[in-house]
């Protein structure tokens, strides 16, 4: 049975440029690696590793001569044929070329389609939001996560609109302006967007209205006799549809962790706490609010498992082990220990991601910050080292791998598209959208029919006047039958 979720002045200045194609290379069979690159010396870069094991370095510059990414690029995602690359600032202090905070490319060719040096600006034209992340919300809309809340991106017109109310920064200047309202990872789960906020916790947004419908704070806990407000680190969605949220020991951005992960039902928002067994050698899931990067926390699309890079003493820079949690078996495991590899290799930053088709782990390794020697390795989901890919000497500081759309493999990067059919409740009112000519019946949890209704238009609503609780809504139109679980709060 399908579930239903309970319902939970433009300030942007876009400096854009359309870029010209320099060659007809297509980047479809392989993996992109977005790099912070060498801060203070040059802008960020992106490399491509083909399925044959061949590197193409700095593909954005190669494809778009005279163009570069911004400073400290940390997040990239491919959505509906476009590649969205988010950088913290538009130019590195040591760079001669001004890049952008948001770069939009053709996902196959890496041809630049548009650049935004500024995501949002004040009345003086100065930036008020450094880049963090991007989420494709629908075919027409995306959300840009920043150091100052979430901003709405018009995909069709390639423009940045307003800020989502309730996600922004109340601080006017200084440190608080940059870090207080940081948005980290965002997930689209059918009718809702779930965004992690450094201070507020989990922000739940209705993407139809771009309004916050609920904010869930991280729990308080006893810290040596002192009540402490914990924070959330990152969020992923497992194959079974549930949300998994990592923990920060506080909201100050110290990087300290807590030994558990929260499992949340995206329909009811009910949550369970899963303890991480440190006594069995399983390390906590790291967070990186103090210098935000995409976290080393992800989920398999082939198995019902979540993966993360261990925190190794609260340092997300120097992870040496990858762990997993088998959701169905309720089992924690060590996937791979890089200390068993010769050469003293260490994961950097987000460190790795899982290929959505092969379920193999692509991991970015380095030695020390002063050593420009890097390599990438490919590991099976059973912890077997499959291949090592050496790299040219450079201070890459990899941000994250991104897997491209492959037209011959439809399972790779299937974007969440906004559902055409939409059922939700607000208070005691039921809203049914795009189910014209269906006849619906509402049953209580005991199977007793409570209400009947004929839906006569595409934007139907009805006051139910029933008690709080869980109900089953069934609809029939000819041979088509739909059912949803709804909650009246």
Q: How do the helices and strands line up, and which of them pair or pack?
A:
Blueprint: E1 30-35, E2 45-50, E3 55-56, H1 59-63, E4 71-79, E5 82-89, E6 102-106, E7 112-116, E8 131-136, E9 141-146, E10 149-154, E11 159-163, H2 174-179, E12 183-189, E13 192-197, E14 201-206, E15 211-216, E16 220-223, E17 226-229, E18 231-237, E19 243-248, E20 260-264, E21 271-275, E22 297-299, E23 305-309, E24 321-326, E25 331-337, E26 346-354, E27 361-366, E28 374-379, E29 385-390, E30 398-402, E31 422-426, E32 429-433, E33 439-444, E34 449-454, E35 459-463, E36 469-477, E37 480-488
Antiparallel strand pairs: 1-2, 1-30, 2-3, 4-5, 5-6, 6-7, 8-9, 9-10, 10-11, 12-13, 13-14, 14-15, 16-17, 18-19, 19-20, 20-21, 22-23, 23-24, 24-25, 26-27, 27-28, 28-29, 31-32, 32-35, 33-34, 33-36, 36-37
Describe what you observe in this structure.
Helices cover 2% and strands 45% of the residues. It has two helices and 37 strands. A four-stranded antiparallel beta sheet has the order 3-2-1-30. A four-stranded antiparallel beta sheet has the order 4-5-6-7, with no helix packed on it. A four-stranded antiparallel beta sheet has the order 8-9-10-11, with no helix packed on it. Strand 2 and strand 3 form a beta hairpin. The chain is globular and about 70 Å long.
